[in-house]
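General statements about sequence and structure are easier to judge against a single worked case. When preparing material for the folding task, we compiled for one chain both its residues and its backbone structure tokens. The amino acid sequence and the backbone structure tokens for this protein are reproduced below:
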Amino acid sequence: MDRCWGKRQFSKLALGAVANVCEIITRKVFLLFTGELHDRVEATEIMCYKCKKYHLGLCYDVMTSCSLKPKQSCAVENFYVLTVTGQSLYHYSKLSCMTNCEDINFLGFSKRAELICCNHSNYCNLPEGV
């Protein structure tokens, strides 16, 4: 407990609460080498990346994670701009946990959106090839 709170004096009741808080704090695992932040979780949970604006390997928001709840999947929403000739130019992606997720393509006059869902492995929702 000294590594969390130093050598402060606590009552016996507060000491138990402080020990619990210290244990929770030290359970967090930060993967700073890749710029990613993950919480340590049980092996049965599937974790997904969460980022509002992801582009070419970088999150332009805060990269966090979410754990799947029942009926959820990891989701990648890829957004494209359509050129005058009809070509799709990749713009950015949104990474999340999504309820009742289904793979689908949306096509408008000037935009295209692609939704890709997965739940087969941890952090499976990183866009490939974009």
Remarks:
- The first strand starts at residue 29 and ends at 31.
